[in-house]
Amino acid sequence: MDTQWFKDLGNLAQSGSFSRAAEIGHVTQPTLSRRIQALEAWVGAPLVDRSKQPVRLTDAGTQMLEAGQQALARLEAERHHIQELRAQPEKYVVTFGAQHSIGWRFYPAWLQAFEQAYGPIMSRLRADDLPNCERDLEQHQVDFVIAYAARRDAQSSHHGAFTQLVDDDQSESLVIGRDSLIPVCKTGPGGRPLFDLNTDQRDIPFLRFGDEAPIGQMLEPLLTHMDLQHRLKPVYQNTMAGALRIRACDGAGVAWLPLTLVKPDLDSGLLISFGKSDWCLPLDIRLHRRRDHINKLTRSIWAFLAVRQDVPLV
Fold first, then answer.
1. Greatest C-alpha distance within the chain
2. Which residues make Cβ contacts (< 8 Å) with residue 263, sequence separation at least 6?
3. Is the pLDDT of residue 118 over 50?
4. CA angle, residues 120, 121, 125, in degrees to nearest 5
C-alpha cells in the first residue's frame, strides 16, 4: 500500500474526473487509474463508481479516503513534531490526546483561545479513540486527554452507564468546555428536516456510533428513555463523529452529533436540528491528567485552567 494512493483518491473525489485528477497529481491518466485499481485491490472493494459522470466515490471509498487522510495527517504531524524537537530540544512540547470528534473542531478553537489567555506553548495533538487515549495517558505518552463526559449538573437516570475516564487516586480532571449531542439531518425542501421524528414515521435511517464508541454508549439510554429506538433503523455506523457527519450531510439519515462539530453546517443550512429539547444530551468536555506525570509547564497549565473551569474558554 502506497500513501500516494490516498492522495490520488482525494484528487479524484474532488474533481470527479480521472483526467482532471491526473492533472492535479501531475501524473498520466493511466498511472492514476492503475493506482486507484491497486488501492481497490488492497482494500478488497470498489472505491469509485465509474458508471456515471462525474465519477463519485462509493461508500467504501468515502470511508477509506477519510481514514487515509487522517493517517496521512497523523504522519505529517509526527514528522513536524520530530523536526521541532530537533530544532529546539530545550523546549517541552505539551501533548494532548483527544477523541476524534473533539479534535476535529473544538480542540483547535480551544487551543487558540487558551494560548491567547495563557500565552503560546509548543503542543501537539494525538486524536484517537478514547480507550487508546486512556492507554496513552497511563503510559505517559500524552500529558493530557480531552474527553466527553455527561454533564454532572444535568445527569438523570436515563443517561445510564457508559465508558468514560473517571477521577481516582492516580488521575484528575477539570471542565474546559461544554457541548451537547443533538439530533440532526440534512435540510430538505422548504427548509424542513429531510427526516421527521416528530411524526409517527418508522424505519427512519439512523447513522449511529459504533458499539465501541463511548459517546454512542452515552446516547443509547437517552434514545431508549425517549422511546425513539424502535423508530430508528440503523443503516450506517462508525466510531468517528466526523464520518457520521459526512453521511448526514449527504442525506443518508439522522444522527446525534456534537454541536461543536456541526454548528457550521447548521449555520449554513446544510444540516438542521430537529426534535424536542430533551432529545439533546448535555456534555462536559473535560481535561484529564495523571497525578504522577507532571512537570513545571503542565503544572502551570493545570493551575491556570483550574481557576477558569467555571468559565470555559470556548
1. 63
2. 105
3. yes
4. 125
Q: Is the peptide bond before 54 cis (omega within 30 degrees of 0)?
A: yes
Look up residue 142 and give its amino acid: V
Distances (CA, A) of 179 to 118, 175, 241, 260, 314: 22, 11, 14, 6, 10
Measured in whole angstroms, how far is the alpha carbon of residue 175 from the centre of its chain?
19
94: its cell numbers: 505539551
Please name which of 247, 181, 245 lies closest in space to residue 214, comparing C-alpha atoms. Answer: 181
Band of residue 146 on the pLDDT scale cut at 50, 70, 90: very high
Is residue 196 within 8 Å of 260, Cβ to Cβ?
no
5-42 pLDDT, tens digit each: 888 999 999 899 999 989 888 899 999 999 999 999 98
Q: How far apart are CA 145 and CA 165, in angstroms?
A: 9
CB atoms within 10 A of CB 8: 24
All structural domains of the chain: 4-70 (1.10.10.10), 92-314 (3.40.190.290)
Kindly report the three-state secondary structure assignment for every residue of 112-125: HHHHHHHCCCCEEE
Here the cell at position 80 is 513536524
Contacts of residue 128, defined as CB under 8 A and 6 or more positions apart, other chains included, come to 97, 98, 99, 100, 136
Task: With CA atoms as reference, report the closest residue to 179 among 200, 152, 148, 142.
Answer: 148
Angle of the 4-15 helix axis to the 29-43 helix axis, nearest 10: 110
Interatomic CA distance for residues 84 and 120, integer angstroms: 15
**Which one-letter DSSP state was computed for residue 189?**
G
Torsion of CA 28, 31, 37, 42, to 10 degrees: -130
> Closest by alpha carbon to 251, among 277, 272, 230?
272
DSSP symbol at 54: S
Confidence (pLDDT) at 258 = 93
